[in-house]
User: Fold these one by one.
Assistant:
Number 1:
Amino acid sequence: MLSIRELRDQAVIRPIKRAVEDHLLDLPGVVAVDIGERTVEGGRTGEQVIVVSVIDKKTADQLDSGMLIPPSVLGVPTDVVEEQPVVFHEHHWVESSEVPVRCGDGIVSGGGGLAPRRPALAGPSRDAGEFRRVGTLGALVLGDAPTTVTMGLTTFDVACMDDAWSVGDQMIDPTVGHVYADLARAALSGRVNAAAVAIDHGLDHSCVIPGIGAVTGQCAAYPGETVRKSGYGTGVTTGTVVSTDSTLRVDHGEALGVRILREQVRVRGVEWGAPFAGCGDAGAVLVNVEGRVVGLHFATTVDGTSAFACPIADVLAELDVGLCTARSGT
């Protein structure tokens, strides 16, 4: 956990960071603005600063004066790091357009795979081939429509892909290739990248995430706490929440363009330099040691060592759903 001094320093920096983040994001190459610990040659210093992420870190003599990131802003030091948040997805080439409907076998739970049945083109021409975008169904949620409906939680990028999506789009299990859910709700806003898919009525389901355990509820992420995720791509990994103040630019592709998400959760692998997430993990939920979900993973840095997640309270509010827990039923 962060020390009282570090938490106090972050509280002082927070309103300043919010006031200047748009200006910093307008500078060429800047992709994220955050609050965190200054690092020097990979070593920790204990000093809390405004962290500015750039795609390609350059020296001052390589940039015009108007493109430079100031060494401090309103008295708060800055630290420039080279990293790029990206929306990583696993892609499976489509060999056949025929997808069988699943017939009520198996148990649906968090951590499994999810892919829209609707394929995407690999290039401007159909000759380039088609692929399916594969992500993770992170956890089960409950929605009223008007009766209670069991849904799976994932990201907008996984379930919707582009601007051609519509409610009712079928979702398949990428492992067995069967349809098992329909797109029900979606949100892509300044704080949320999320979607909910309605699970077919004939399927059994469980609020237990294999490898992690039962979901017990939700709460806000806390810097310094340990969390785990179960993703379709890299399985169960453990990380540490390092920030809840990440504001980042995310490129969602040609159809949706670049969007800014504010005050997102940043997680780093428990071992410095070790990856926390990778391709196919988008849609996984972050779960703390008490079994409470704190975020919905949607992006990582290119090397996978840092991951970003939407605060779970914002996700549930925008989708108008509640988590399926041991109390709400399996």
Number 2:
Amino acid sequence: MSNNKIKYLAYYLPQFHPIPENDEWWGEGFTEWTNVKKAKPLFKGHQQPVKPGELGYYDLLKTEEIQEKQAKLAKEHGIDGFIYYQYWFGNGKMLLEKPAEKMLANINVDLPFCFCWANESWRGIWHGLDNPDTLMEQTYNGEEDYKNYFNYLLPFFQDQRYVKIDNKPVFVVYDAAALPNDFIPFFQNLAKENQLNGIYFMASNRGSNDYDYKSKGFDSKISGDYNVLLDKELFKIRKPTFRNRLLKKLQKNVNLPMVLDYKSFFKKLKYTNSNVETFPMVLPNWDNTPRSKYKGFLFSNSSPDLFKKEIKKAIKFLNNKDCKEKLIIIKSWNEWAEGNYIEPDENLGRNWLKSFK
């Protein structure tokens, strides 16, 4: 990637096609759309359900030319690439890998891409169940397993569309702190053995900026300031004060999710640096009540205009420091069941995307 201008990379969720595991856990035909379609408003003015716009309720494996259409739409609005979530659980077990494989085989999907390894166990509680049981456990099984994972990734790394920094493929790790200490050095050696300049390891937005990413082998970090502030603000709501006990009782009685005002929240958000190159993350909205119902939380009063202000804040953060690459991470392209998307919807059309113009 060149550093002549700001580049935008958007997280991309592949859970838009059925898989046997989701059929077993959630019912036949389950995809991200399942929860989106059955969502209901939980209070007056709550905008649910949301409905997709021009791309419709797509299936990433069946809908004709859907990935080409997504790529074209992204490029037309200044998005420079997708960060595909990837689910490798160890011992060769993967989930939701087919959309990326389909994209790799189709040169007409004309948009750069890279991966975010979502190295975390899947739990039932994510989808609003009271049962926190582990559905699929994340494991780390040593060098032979790491080598198998690298060999799977190699054709993607070698693809001309793969996002590179310093001529190294960018590889985002969701839970940087959980990564075994021998993983990054081992991957770097394998990269050089396969005629790559190395791997550019980027820690995701999970975790604060205070962690020592450099000693772990990371080259950069997606700012964790949003996550830290969110934990702080939600703690204020949950704190056992008299007022909050009263609100909690009311919430339980009338099934109200936690609500934060978008403008007020992001006014408090200040970007800070970690001990590696740090890239800001922008977020258009959040509402995970389609998954979690009244146990979820959402932003109220979000809008493309306010989102555009957050993009400008991120640009200012990058322009006020010396950095080789100027990246802004978008969360997300299509996390519909979390109200966290910039794809066109029925209500706003392409207005989220127009924020980048």
